[in-house]
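pinning this so it doesn't scroll away 📌
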Amino acid sequence: MSNLLIHGFYTNYTNGKGVDYVRISQRGEAADRIVAHHRIKDVKPPENPNLDSMSHRAMIERWKVIGPAYEAWKAGTEIPDDGTPLGAWSHITPAMAEHLKRMHILTVEHVRDMSDEEAARLPFPDSRKLPKLAGDFLGGKEKADMARENEELRERMEALEELLSAKMAGEEPKKRGPGRPPKQKEPVDAVQEG
């Protein structure tokens, strides 16, 4: 995990031209107090870099964190760091998701953890039911993830059982799946002396 914390992106307009900025800090106790604002063009690695430069390598590492988040922000599909994005939950509309984001409720987990008073203040029909519905959705997602993991483990177990039984029978184990055929030795032509 990177020690870089992204607080958000914004565009500053001057003379009709927009310049994108990122707000970042280092993780830790002072993360909210010491926030730096950088132009995106200043933190993005250059096209023709000096590859041996330590500062360039540092820029590349920093961009590995900032770049995907910036692209998601530009596309309007920001992905939260700590949960399931609201867009993954089909129970709410995009307008409802946008309203929740303005309230700093960014994930389905945040909705699940809302108090009754917070839920009642939402301007949605049956808003008091949202935390329970979010919990039900997350519970079903966890069950689906567990079922997928169990299926993968079952397949691996079957492959190991086949390998073990082949070893115990003294057979050469069969290769599973596609692979490169064994290399054929070509006959060497006899050199004829003339």
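📌 and the second one:
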Amino acid sequence: MDLRERILQAADHVIRTNGLARTTTKEIARVAHCSEGSLYNHFQSKEDLFVQMIKGHLQHFLAVLHKLPERVGTRTVKENLQEVAHAAIEYFRLSIVMTASMFTEPSFLSRHRGSFVERNEGPHRANEILGAYLGAEQELGRANPAINPRSAADLLLGACFQHVFHLQFRGVKEPEEEEKRFIVDLVQTLLLGADPK
């Protein structure tokens, strides 16, 4: 493992333990077994380190989302949504503590909110990409034409986020089989809806 990766792992550990506000680059460097100067050779600031950490957590989830346009009309909609739900849960599990800590530093959030808007990045993009995928499946007749694709995306990703939030709050590590069952039930419920007809 190279030094940059070691620093990212140390930052993840320290922020989860102390929270973002009480985390210092000095403490991160100590846990990473390097000098604070070495840390600054790889990251401009604590904020830069935090943003790079979040981006690292996001990579797999984004990879799954960016495959969705080529998934249109392939496999089943259920399989594609299950793949998205699994990646979303994995991402939320890694990032929920980190993203929540952003709200404890309003000036940090404000600075980065602006740059996210400029680059059209941020949490809303996942919902937009998934909504566009469901809209494309509607056009092929593979998804219910009566649903709002963006609302369906919001329901799926929102349920995944809330599921992880509940587990984190309770301090529960969910067995893999239970997570799979949750995903299967969630996607099936989304596809069938609540209408008795």
